[in-house]
Amino acid sequence: MRVQRSGLAAVLLLLVFASAVHAAWYIPGVNPQSYEEGEVLDVKVNSLTSNQGVMPFPFYSFKNCAPPKERIQALRKRENIGELLWGDEIEPSEFVIQMNKNVTCRKLCNTISYTEKEMSVLTKLIEQQYRGNLIMDNLPVAQETHAGPRLPKLLIGYPLGVPSRLAPNKKPLINNHLHFKILYYEANEFQADGPPAYRIVGFYVSAHSLKYDDINQRCQEGKPFSPESLEPLPTTTTEVTWTYTVSFVEETNLPWATRWDALLKGGEHDDKIHWFAIINSMLVVVFLSAMVAMILLRLLHKDFNRYNNPENPDEAQEETGWKLVHGDVCRTPCYPGLLAATIGSGCQLVCMAALTLVFACLGFLSPSNRGALLTAVILLYVLLGSFAGYVGARLCKLFEVQSWKNAFLTGVLLPGAVFFVYFLLNLVQWYKHASSAVRFTTLLLLFALWMCVSLPLVIIGAAIGYRREKLTMPTRVSALPRVVPVQQWYLRTPFVVLACGVMPFGAAFIELVYILSSFWQGRVYYVFGFLALVFIILIVTCAEVTMVMVYFQLCYENYNWWWRSFFMAASSGLLLYCYSVYYLMTVLTIRQPTSVMLYLGYLSLISLLFGFACGTVCCLSSFQFVRIIYSRIKVD
Known about the structure:
Low-confidence stretches: 1-29
Mean pLDDT: 83
Oligomer: single chain
Number of helices: 17
């Protein structure tokens, strides 16, 4: 309990620190920024992203209008660890936009000449449907779409061009002209005595492909400009003129606090899909709850009465059913140290997910605060290392395998596997010069957090856990293990493990699909309230399905429930990975070998973590269930 209290104290300190930061400094998406008329708006560029390519690339990875390198280095935003891992690379741009000053047509820079190799780089990005991302006043630029009710009305970023399969003449086109539409409203009520102040509530763009016959006559500020009157610009050209237009539109019906809603809102059917997911998961929980109630209130109650009845003349009845294995049900499982480390790592993972959802639901991890979600995940996981060590040590003491090697195994088992796979994936991104390729210094920082913070906390938690009293089991272990009878095919481990994994996976299936579509189809995931409900339903489902299956397993005299209960729900991670492969083949348009490799690599990590979390909940629920039912019977 001391480690639990220390963990809660750490969380409270984080809350106090977050409150202090909120009160003292500007948190993106929380405090509004006002601008005077004519004030220059800072427009920054972010990484190039695509639904067909998993890897983001720096905005200036192809030849375009870029500021001098000295200015880029001086004004580059210092990303937090979440932004670095996510692949955000925010840099200054050459766009000059003044508050409430319309621009008819302005050259971004002088006309740029392209060699065949430089144009091939841009053509490849266009064919892979990469999108440019801009940021102004902490708002990402968005493009309005009219693709139907099932798709979001706004897509983040703008297309670099039109790929050949969508172009009229089957030749890729370059989008060299951007028309910005900036929504604002006047906020004079906050500055009664000063000059008019304005606040930005929308940042939209439409991209055009324009082949200028005479740039000096066609694109001049103050003169009428019609993009429809110009021919499109193919990638076969050798010179490109990058231009932009700015239109300010006053919007009085859109409050500043809700300006992100248009970006976060998906299609018209999103709410229905989420409610369907909740109802579907609730039906699963109700079904399992009914089975558990039937077992606990009818079967177990009947068993208790039969086993504990002192006047029962038939002594043979006392040696039937799950009571028959009372001398083996508490037997130490095989590989006890590995099981203790697995359960400890899973507890750390489950608590981290729960606390992250709490912070997200409270609004601390808003999408407007870039990188905050991933940063919170890493910090919470590191700080909860003491809890993992504590749980692992308590189980090791129960299994009578006390050793500091087990505490070390708890600290390196799951983080080591994740770090190794992530390092291999990062090598691929290094090779491709992707913006998501983490620098060596950042990898050293992650390694230092693991070895210098998380692992010592695991050892401290293990030290406290070893000093606690040993957990008591309700029955004594017999000297010789019983022989497990031959099980029917539907009671054997492979079938039971795969069948039980369907329940947790089905409870979270719809939400998992929505998360996949958000991550890999250019959307912003923000519905943490739905995710928190599904998380609770998932935990209840895992606990109930394992109690049912362990009861039937014990009734058929199979007392090897420790590892089996873990893999019952951990198999849902395998189902998630299989579905992700199916999702890749049927829904996504990722076909490049390196992108497919990264997709499968990332999903393998997600599936592993999902399986660890579900398996841990199942194993601990089975442990508590066995302790309860065997403590209620009289054993000679």
